[in-house]
Automatic annotation (TrEMBL):
<feature type="repeat" description="WD">
    <location>
        <begin position="93"/>
        <end position="134"/>
    </location>
</feature>
<dbReference type="InterPro" id="IPR020472">
    <property type="entry name" value="WD40_PAC1"/>
</dbReference>
<dbReference type="InterPro" id="IPR001680">
    <property type="entry name" value="WD40_rpt"/>
</dbReference>
<dbReference type="InterPro" id="IPR036322">
    <property type="entry name" value="WD40_repeat_dom_sf"/>
</dbReference>
<feature type="repeat" description="WD">
    <location>
        <begin position="267"/>
        <end position="301"/>
    </location>
</feature>
<dbReference type="GO" id="GO:0017070">
    <property type="term" value="F:U6 snRNA binding"/>
</dbReference>
<keyword id="KW-0677">Repeat</keyword>
<feature type="repeat" description="WD">
    <location>
        <begin position="9"/>
        <end position="50"/>
    </location>
</feature>
<dbReference type="GO" id="GO:0000398">
    <property type="term" value="P:mRNA splicing, via spliceosome"/>
</dbReference>
<dbReference type="InterPro" id="IPR019775">
    <property type="entry name" value="WD40_repeat_CS"/>
</dbReference>
<feature type="repeat" description="WD">
    <location>
        <begin position="219"/>
        <end position="250"/>
    </location>
</feature>
<dbReference type="InterPro" id="IPR015943">
    <property type="entry name" value="WD40/YVTN_repeat-like_dom_sf"/>
</dbReference>
<keyword id="KW-0853">WD repeat</keyword>
<dbReference type="GO" id="GO:0030621">
    <property type="term" value="F:U4 snRNA binding"/>
</dbReference>
<feature type="repeat" description="WD">
    <location>
        <begin position="177"/>
        <end position="218"/>
    </location>
</feature>
<dbReference type="Pfam" id="PF00400">
    <property type="entry name" value="WD40"/>
</dbReference>
<protein>
    <submittedName>
        <fullName>WD40 repeat protein</fullName>
    </submittedName>
</protein>
């Protein structure tokens, strides 16, 4: 496996915390500790524009499939709703008073889930943009949301070191998982739904059987906190991003380490924490505290 840096997108003046591919091919959105949400062209790797200004740092961006909407979660607790057809912010979802860390949607229910530092997850109707439910998940921050591929269950990563599994039908607590020794930062179900991968401040990746939620494997994956785990959409691999400035690519079926993308390994990588990843086909996009968006071309053997 080889990784080649093919582009570096610069323009952010502060750390970048999150990114999201548009439903429109070749368009990327990024947000961070800047004053706006930024749109990029991935065909020629150029800055397009600042979509709209924000009053607080952006921690989460989500474009739900089938809706012309972009949701932006802010450190202030606000969620801004941008309409691509009207080309403007049409609403602010006001419910949380503390930072928004993740936003995901449940297609079959036409619902949006918003995770906050206040320990709750709010549930919104994608059709009416009204709140329908609020779940008290933890006494502390809910950092990440992962929805199982069959949309039967949802997993929440919590700052109290636990992972909470809820039934998506009635939002009843199904199971609490304990294994991490520090805050859980990131969760991802494997595309086939066979297992849940978790990563956190303890630098460990834990693999949980999604039928029983028993632990299958523990991988001492990075030197510092794991900020993001992301499965390749079609190939049996997943990538991890860490506060140790590195990106690693693992086998999704054998859990072997196949590639380390870091300056220590001779790659022109990030010089500060890597915060979030996105797969654009076989290209891996990464954003970092170093204010850069990097596009990596991954060749799988």
């Amino acid at each position: 496996m080889t990784a080649e840096k093919i582009a570096e997108l610069t323009g952010h003046g502060n750390p970048i915390f999150t990114l999201e591919l548009s439903q429109k091919p070749g368009i990327l959105f990024t947000g961070g500790n800047d004053k706006g949400l930024v749109e990029w062209n991935l065909h020629d790797h150029t800055f397009i524009k600042v979509m709209f200004p924000v009053r607080a740092s952006i921690y989460a961006i989500h474009c739900p499939a089938g809706y012309p909407l972009l949701f932006t979660g802010l450190r202030s607790g606000e969620v801004l709703v941008f309409d691509f057809i009207q080309q403007k912010v049409i609403k602010s979802l006001q419910h949380h008073l503390k930072a928004i860390f993740d936003i995901k949607s449940v297609p079959h229910k036409k619902e949006l889930l918003v995770a906050s530092e206040d320990g709750t997850v709010s549930v919104w109707s994608l059709d009416t943009l009204e709140i329908v439910h609020s779940i008290k998940v933890s006494v502390d921050t809910v950092r990440c949301i992962a929805i199982s591929p069959n949309e039967k269950q949802v997993a929440f990563a919590c700052r109290d070191n636990s992972i909470k599994i809820y039934d998506l039908e009635d939002y009843a607590l199904f199971k609490s998982l304990h294994g991490h020794t520090m805050s859980v930062f990131t969760l991802a179900y494997s595309p086939d739904g066979a297992y849940l991968a978790s990563g956190g401040r303890d630098a460990q990746i834990k693999i949980w059987d999604s039928a029983t939620y028993q632990p299958i494997k523990n991988i001492p994956a990075h030197l510092f906190a794991i900020n993001h785990i992301l499965f390749h959409p079609t190939k049996p691999y997943f990538a991890t991003a860490s506060m140790d400035k590195g990106i690693k690519i693992w086998g999704a079926d054998d859990f072997k380490l196949y590639k380390i993308i870091s300056r220590e390994k001779g790659h022109p990588g990030h010089v500060l924490s890597v915060n979030k990843l996105a797969w654009n086909g076989d290209q891996l996009l990464s954003v970092s505290d170093d204010k850069k968006v990097v596009v990596w071309d991954i060749k799988f053997d």
